[in-house]
Fold these 4 entries.
Entry 1:
Amino acid sequence: MSLDPAKPEMLKVYAYILDTFAESDCLLVFEHVDFPEAGIQVPGGSIEPGERPKDAVLREVKEETGISNLKLVGELGVVRKDMGEFGLNCVHERHFFQFDCLIETPKEWIAFEHTPSDGSESPIAFRFYWENIENSPMLSGGLGEFSNRLL
């Protein structure tokens, strides 16, 4: 699919976070508590004006998960995605990063996004959990773009 240059572009970041305490390779994923139809996702969000992608991804991870003790493994790549298939008239430039989580966390927890990018004032509840990478969780919205590089 070719990208429409007339569509506005939004800069996004996404984090593949691996659990360094697990016996097998586990990826941090989440589902919306109130909107399970949104599918399984990884932490991420919008880059603010003047913000570097690396800074944005660390901010978004902390806002969404509460985790701030991460080790950057590297930037996995950038992809541009037309969001028309999701009913949005824009193109996302998506920066994907890999991190190791340096603290032990629960196997599952609920966290709240208090600054949602859609501008709503109500916090959004996310159910985070660690998923074995070999089980290949199907990430929604094209968020699995670089997940094959994690093994």
Entry 2:
Amino acid sequence: MTNYGLVAEMHGKFRIETPPEPQSLDTAVMVGRVEMMLEELVELMRAHRAGDLAEEADALVDLVVFALGTAHLMGLPWDDVFAEVMRANLAKERGVGKRRNGLDLVKPEGWTPPDVAGVLRRAAR
């Protein structure tokens, strides 16, 4: 089962509903979700500063769970959206971009962005 599937299973267990088709969240709900993700980022940095690899890993998993849970609450076809964004990312090249570090990915000539809107339209049918 995918990580997204596991989050969907957790939402089912706790009766957290998902819309029948993709939609944006109410602003208050989205703010709450973002606050939870920010909390996990803070925990990640605290664990990093403490040199606690296990807590770093735990914070990263919690961050991903909140991000995937938010996508699930939005009814996003996550695996399809992820595949489309990764298709575009894999067409990039390693180089120095606007972040000015050697781990950056840059868009080569002819690069095409992900068609997330197309994925969402297909999911809404």
Entry 3:
Amino acid sequence: MSPSQPPVDIKAAEDRLMRYLAVEGVSGEEKAIAEAIVADLKALGVPADAIRFDDAHKRIPLPTQTGNLFASLPGTKKGPRMVFATHLDTVPLCAGAKPKREGGKIMPQGKTALGGDNRTGCAVLVTLAETLIKKQLPHPPITLVFTVREESGLQGAKYMDAKLLEGGAMCFNVDAKLPAELVIGAVGAEKWEAEIHGKASHAGVAPEKGISSTLVGSIALAEAHRNGWWGKVVKPEGKGTSNAGIFGGKPGKAAGDATNVVTDYVYIRGETRSLDTKFATKITAGYEAAFRFAAEQVKDSDGAKAEVKFKGAPEYPSFNIAADSPAVKHAIRAAESLGFTPSTMLSNGGLDANWFVAHGLPTVTFGAGQHDIHTVNEFVDLAEYADGCRMAVALATLEG
């Protein structure tokens, strides 16, 4: 297959990305960027009644300004419906971001992240609509999906109204680095939390009368590490990762009030991940056992022990699409049609694709030039972004 170049207006695509990068929209505050996208879609000729929001924000357990945004493009040829997806939100480090062009990159002007994750995806999807409409390219029915709160636990995709996916046969999610790196699977994750109720006492006068929650928590984490449940987890029955990310006290407070008081309360929160959802649960169980063990090791002078309350819960499921599935084969052919050398890979981070697959929609994720995401060194490579736009058009218009 000889390489082809879809007729994408690259200057318009770059200008669109610059505009979107300047629109603030951290997780839960996606209304402004959603409105900008709706205005652009309408200006391109997408009818108002083909653009709609679901009510996922009413089900998401965190304050969220708006639901997920959907737009339908009628097919100009017969074929199974395709879904193209991305997310609207950025991480908090992007608050106040101002983009600037520097050579072949877009970078933040100040000490913020840029928001290329995922303003690139937003711009790619609108550029796809622009190219299909203005160039009158033949394509099957298409649904564009812009989710909310991806960066805070894939909440928009989890709680979306799946009926608005309109029975799509396959989905292509723009949320990675390179157009030819096709993500076909990702880990599932669980969240866990432990509350340790000890007993305060004067640490100088009568430390033996106290039960240190700090000590219990420290022993628990050391025990999890000793048993191989901490960090990179490799067991005969599976592989995964884990982390204890928060070691604190009551909401907004440190663990403990003073150095001369035995700490009576500690709160610890962490996560576990694995490509095998059942193994992620097993890692969580390893942490619970470690906390139960630790509670038995710390006693006051009367033999009393700390009370440990441990809770673990799934956050999102893992997935792994077969390499010979129609969605993967279509993505490979589209990449090859552009002269790329595609590769398939698995992600150790969660994606909206985790939930799209759980909703019954096979999903392949590809990139559009976002680099060093979630850091102040973030940038978008404009050549790769242009290739991401071309990849979306190739996916939508490829025959067969």
Entry 4:
Amino acid sequence: MGKSAAHSQDYLQYIYQAQNGLNGNPLAFPSMDSFEVALLLSNGSELSYTGYTRLRGTFSSITFNVSGTTASNGIDFDFPVCTGNGQTATKFKIYAGNGISQPSAFTYEVGSGNLNGAVAIGVGDTPKFLSGDLTITES
């Protein structure tokens, strides 16, 4: 049996919007205020084009939208420009941690998904995902 819709929404709001137990379900998760988004190849390994780094930010109700059991990016996500060794991204993962100043703290994978089609990234390209392009569904 999966989570109830209310629990799934609470979880998404807690993780992606830094809110706690809006539907009356207290959540007991470690404090996580920041995130990293990684782009992946079809085999699941992380991109490694020249210039690539994970995108970093802080969770909030502006950064991520939550509707029912689905969360999506609420703002555009721009990755660094490819300066060499282009690759094709097909998936993404979102990691959470306790502060952007502590990169080793990003140990929780809190979401993942497939991109809406493969994204070929060549030299000079800046991978960009518009608001709503990256979607995570909880069940």
